[in-house]
Amino acid sequence: MTRSTVPPMSVLGELVDRMRELAAEELDTHTLELRAFDDGDYHLRIFHTHPIINGNIEERTEIRYDREDEVIIRRYYRRHKLEQDLLEEETDVLESYSDPIK
User: Fold this and answer.
1) CA 19 – CA 102 distance, rounded (Å)
2) What's the confidence (pLDDT) of residue 55?
3) How far is CA 31 from the centre of its chain?
4) What does the pLDDT average to over 66-76?
């Protein structure tokens, strides 16, 4: 049996808390999604999906952590829900944040 290397939540806690603070400033309501993998990788985002326009256009604003660049970003996009075509996208760096797993 191999030992799991899923990142410990205690190490990710401060990053999650900081992103929650930013999300409270940026988003009206939100959902937090954290996926942690046994290879040590993780993906963290907090997002709000706006009401769907005409049943086909999805709008979403998300606060996410970019591990490669070690930054917290805000990403807004609109896409065609059925065809998955990206119609518009804006990305802004909110702040630098060192990867707590490195």
Assistant:
1) 18
2) 75
3) 10
4) 97
